[in-house]
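RECORD TYPE: protein structure
NAME: Cystathionine gamma-synthase
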Amino acid sequence: MALVHPASADMKLHLIGQEESAVQILVDALVKKLAIPKHFSGLLFVDPDALTEVNEFSTRDYCQEKHGEHCGMIFKQIDIYCVRLYGVFFEPPNLAAIDYAHVTGVSISQRLAECLHSHVEDSLFRDLPMEYGIVQSKPTYLLQVPPSLTTKERIVSLLKRVPASTAPSTLISPKRLRTGDRIVPAIGVSDVYLFPTAKAALYRLHNHLTMFNDYEYISVAFGRVSKSLLDILAINGARHDHFANGDENDLTNLEALCKAEKTAEHGVQALYVEFPSVSAFEGLRKLADRYGFVLVVSETTVNLANVDFMSIADVLATNLAAGFSGDTDVQGGSLVLNPESSAVYRYLKPLMERNWHNEVFTGDIVELEYNSRDYLCRSATSNQNAEAIATFLQGKATKSSVIRVNYPKFTPGFEVYMRDPTSKFVPGYGCLVVVDFEEQDCAVAFYAALKMEIEAHSIDCPTCIFLEDSGTLFRGDQVNSGCSVHVVAGLESTDSLIRSVQQALEVADGSTGDRKVIAPSGSL
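PREDICTED:
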């Protein structure tokens, strides 16, 4: 069964077609150059392991039932303009191959595709046989440039800027005996690893840990997390579990799992958590110290300027495309290792050094570094706009097609981890608002209407909207299938933005019939 929610397959393919036009143009040119059947499509990577993973995923997940081994896929090594690419070409619709790229986020970027397109005629290629499921080829990966170092330095400076004085004292972040101040982690630029997308950062970490532990250990997601994270934990066939409620009962059950795994001479290799479970962070940290698993805090909805999770996290995963960049013209993600987590750091640092290779294109990192120069200034405005959107929609939840608003402001315990305010910056709740709708049609209608409203009032750094199938939405005992709209607040006038959101909600409400009332959302 494919990871994509069946009801959203056509919608997702449509969105991918819009977002990946530059990549598709390059793929079409290569199909012609390589004399591959015209109706074939393809995916391009800079890491040869991706071909092995696509092959394994396709045969295990979708194509094994539908098309048999390899799913009729063609594997190619392509040398083009000093870059070695790895291509997998297939007959559409091959949802498994598309799912792999969508879930992992490791395919090449728009900018790299645009750069390489004019060099297709000069490219060299060879077939890559899949011998014992392994591709034999030496990769070039991508060149690292000075803006990569500048971006890493900026991330480190933000993490050290102003700690959260109210964050709990933990084994990895004790407080000074005399002053009671928290000791700031000694993070350096060598502890920061950049990736082409936030998904790629989480996927690479999960894959490295899984292979390091020979697929014997289990990975755990705790509390309300994004569907993309759950898909990542499932994609390589490793054992995984999800404690969906994120409450005290789940903490008890998690400890029971840790004990059972230890008794079986296995273990929990990593636990992934996001902001909705912030009230459980301290308890999770204690379990991580006791049982030795890697505690990964996925900071994809708030931003580095607002929160300080380094007293909790062994690894901080960050989406650099939202608040950090402030513009959706570039993607990016990062992993930051916490050197104060000495037990984990001792093996995780060499593991990352052995396995990390640069997959971020020069043009993307240059744009990312440039966009992030005014990060704090932009964050103040986007925080304000996002909070206004979230507050407005929270008031409409259960009275409209909106069933839940996911925003840190409505999450008890979140303020404990907010950075201390300064004269230059007062932290907020982040720029991303995730809105869950009761029906997919409502979400699509809201997305289309708000997108049209935003584009009609075009400014620099506008609000951005993304549509994502949310699969199963967990809240206590309630389970609903629906769709989520991700709203990344921009720099518009707050009043104008709220008017646009209100009009989009009216369109969404008009797209559904009888509406069932669900308990108020509040915190998750």
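COMMENT: Residues 374-509 form a domain with the Aspartate Aminotransferase, domain 1 fold (CATH 3.90.1150.10).
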